[in-house]
Amino acid sequence: MGIEGLAERLAEGVVVGDPGVVASYSRDQTFVVPGEALGVVLARSTEDVAVTLAWADENRVPVVPRGAGTGLAGGATATDGSVVLSLARMNAIRELNTADQYAVVEPGVINADLDRAARAHGLMYAPDPSSHEISTLGGNLATNAGGLRCVKYGVTRESVLGLEVVLAGGKVINTGGRTVKGVTGYDLTGLFVGSEGTLGVITGATLRLRPAPSAEPVTVAGTFPSMVAAGEAVAAVVAAGIEPSLLELVDRATLLAIDDWKNIGVEDDTAAMLIGQVDVAEPREPAARMAALFEAAGATAVAVSEDRAESDELLGIRRMAYHASERLGHCLVEDVCVPRSKVPEMIARIEKAASGHDVTVLTVAHAGDGNLHPLFVFDRGESEVPAPVWAAADEIFQGALDLGGTLTGEHGVGVLKRRWLGLELGDDRLAVQHAIKAALDPNGILNPGKAI
């Protein structure tokens, strides 16, 4: 089937069939090889989305929604015979209400752009994925993205008050509202956040804003002789009742990858770096306590920022991690999450799996909330993930579950984690999720093969 019929229902230029353009919209940040899509819809309005889904449902054509394509689980990769529905051009901030502290946005708004708009009014948008300068809010909503500040402010779902969603047949519904509290009926807002485009397409969101910190945050960075020692520092900070706005862990392999790229200078005895930040009204005292806990856990060096420039420089090391790792080869990026007290043990299990299967694993972590990102690096010449990489990943995922954790803390399931779903959810919970999918998407057109 072609897409001529769809093109006839939409304005000129909205539907694109040029093979080169289609190919560019068919991939995300992963190495997953996409299928051949029929075309791309460059949606400009909710109406464009509704028309697209109505046509697709009538003709049983799969639809793959996408934002900026920064996903790390293959959730936005095209499937054969699908239409890729790009929401990147729906990029308006429809409303920014300072009195009630919320914003109404379209899905193509860049995360950092909303934060900057809010800060102009003394507010902030809290969710802060490492890709905040390029990822869209629609993608953040679809995967329930987390980020660096989620240790204090929570993942995306905690900042969503309501949604505008287009269902499979083209009907538009609104969930939630503009109030901080609202418990009428089932929590449909929470259901659609994190559903990876499999239940509906989000075309608008009412997002909670918060007062921006009144003082410049203070950042603390420490280097450690082992990953386990750094993990013990994380546990000590949490146990001490310090409320960091972020607490990030970077292993030696990642630091060396960054050093090879940006020449940051990594000492021979540095096995890990831990970066914490405090954004309370009087941040110096808790930052000093954090620095002391780093030292007590065995840090070989500790630095405390004196101003915003130093703080940004220290935090910039963490933000470079993925791009530095990507320079080494294909990356299978995972994100297990365990109880915070289990971070040191989970780190040890990752190191053991990497060594036991002789694979390269670089680890960074939102350590303050137990969310670890082991990045499995393999040769770009490989057309598929090598067996030892899958074996190490199997061991790491099972280890996370054994420690009371989960398979994914913020990246979503996409296609790359479906192989492990049964381990965590079991047959009964999977059956409930399939029943919800069948009720909202009876013809199975919404991002088939993803998430569940």
TrEMBL record:
Its cofactor is FAD. Keywords: FAD, Flavoprotein, Oxidoreductase. One of its GO terms (molecular function) is FAD binding. Gene3D superfamilies: 3.30.465.10, 3.30.70.2740, Vanillyl-alcohol Oxidase, Chain A, domain 4 (1.10.45.10). PROSITE patterns: FAD_PCMH. The keyword Flavoprotein applies. This is FAD-binding protein.
